[in-house]
Amino acid sequence: MMAVVALGWLGVAAPAAAQQPGVHYLHQGVMPPGAIGGRQLQRGGPLPGYFQPVEIKAPQGALVSLAVAGDFDRPKAAARRAGFLIGQVYRMRVTNIHLHAGLEVFPTIEVIDRLYPPRGQETRFAIPVELTHEDLELALQGKFVTRVIYLEDPRRALPVAENPQQQEWFEVGPGNDPLAAADALGRPVAILRMGARLPDAEGPDMQFLFGCPPFVEYPPRREPPAAPAPTEAPPAAAPAAPGPGPGGAVPVPPEASQP
Amino acid sequence: MTKARENGSSGCRCTTAFQGRRNARSATALEGRRTRSAALRTQNRKNQKNAIADERRARAWRLLIVGLGVLILCSCQGPAQQFCPPGVYPPGADTPNAAAYPSPYPSPYPQLPESAYTGVPPVPPQPQPMVGPPGMEQGVPLAYEPTGPWTPPGIAGPWPQDEYLRDGGDRELPARVSRDWEVFGLDLEDTVAHYDTLDGRTVVEPSNRVHIYAPRFAAVRKVSSVRAGEQVGRAGGFHLATTLLGPTETLPVGVGTQNYQPVGGIAARPPVIFRSRQGDGVVSEALGAVGFHDGLLPFENLAVIRMGTFDEAEMPQLARGINAALAWSHDKAVQVVLDRKAAMAATADQTSPSIYTIGAPPGDPKLRVIKVASTPFAEPGDEVALTIRFDNLGNQVIGNVTIIDNLSPRLEYVADSAQCSLDAQFLTQPNEGDSLVIRCEVADPLEPGQGGVIRFRCRVR
User: What is the complex's ipTM, to 2 decimals?
Assistant: First the structure.
């Protein structure tokens, strides 16, 4: 009797449960900069103190400056690589934007997770953060652009070749959380925000620069020389283990043939 | 006067009577006094005897306590040490042994190494008697030390698998081949080989799995804007709903019933079964629980006991519990003995998909498939060469050897890059990950000990 009642309750409750959202996200993309990374640090793991290499890409000709000691350092041409602490917010200044000379954009980068590359390959596999020309123009128009960079799940990745000039990205509409969308597609590792913020006329203060957290400067990437592909035929395989074989004709059964 | 005489005479009589009464009272009092004195003396003698007995008992207790104390102190002493002067050894000791017979005098053999020549013939080591329960004369099985699955060097698990491309093995559903050589259960990233045996069977052998560090990133963008001056319009009106004019009838509550609050709950616990299996059928046990007095104890709070599902993360704790069971007494332990040999939990850093032993019975075909990659890490756009080595390790010829590699969606096959050291035919067909399934059909049967190499290249997407 109890089993019948339980089955009946499950039958009634199953459609209602299916209508509930499957995941309750603790973080939202609209949270202020630093909040998500700070909570990530509270969850433990080998995150504190690790400088995650990040490669900042920008359109051709754009200059990127990082906040150092209350001001921005010398502008450098993109792509620029640096190691950022997880949970900290790094303010940048992008200048010399194509078709918008004299205008500046002040994006922020927040690294919320790290990678675990092989030893010695940390800087080679940096998190790419792209400042596209379209995003910069939107920011100059007063829009607020949030770009969540995530690590793709290899088994659910798009079966298309990656364009080295532009990162694959998706647009989420109003009312949707970009962090939740990125979490559904992979593992979010960094958040880029730009637009709707300008420093004071007297200059950027420490609140605007998020305290100028420390970072590690890495030299720009050097393209490795293209290695010639091996085309020679593999050598004939040696016998795996010595042993007397049956010899003579191969007694393969007649029904065992190639399909 | 008469009265006086009468009184006197009468007085004499009275005196005599009084004297008699007095004598009688005196006798009675004396008798009572004598009786009391005798009782007192008896009581005194009893008291004296009791005091003597108490004193004797107290003395006996004191002696008993002192004796027990001496016995305890003597039992706390270590084994009796026999002190011998230099050069004099106790009976039965024909060699100097400073460890067994410490001497207060300076030893003539002060801390010499074992290899030093002292003129005294060395004592051959005495063989240690075999200890252990039947079936474990060679020793008790070592503690189980699982190392878990493969992890990148320098990173303790769990490691993020989403940063690695994997290819090889047979994950999820096992691959099977029908009679018309149609392959089922071939998942993405699988690499298997199947062949036909002389007795008409079709055997499937998976390869090992290779890991290539190749993370790829994408982004999700959202653009929002601030609309200045926008104002939310006010509500222009509202519907006037029809309201009730009044209740037509009101029925007051006449009788109230107060239900008793439940004071306890009765729930039936489902039968719990404990199942455990380790290795390839080496250890298998099923214990039906007869009942529990309380919830799960800390040492049994495992997923395999709670829900019946085996969790690899609990493998060390589970193995420790099994070894603890082996350490129990013989009649209470969970004993698994195969051919009078105790079952042992084996572990290794790396596992192979198949284990072959020498001395296989006749007609036992085996095919070993090994897969390697040219680089442990690659970036999108890089080419990775994958090499598959297959060998016939059995003792009979096998035919229709076919190697199938279902590529990951992140790997793109480089056209016309497949090669084989044997005469083989390569076929490709798209898979569900918009990549390719590479199929290599070896033309000739493989003799025992014969093998081949397949090589092809893929581009990391």
Answer: 0.76
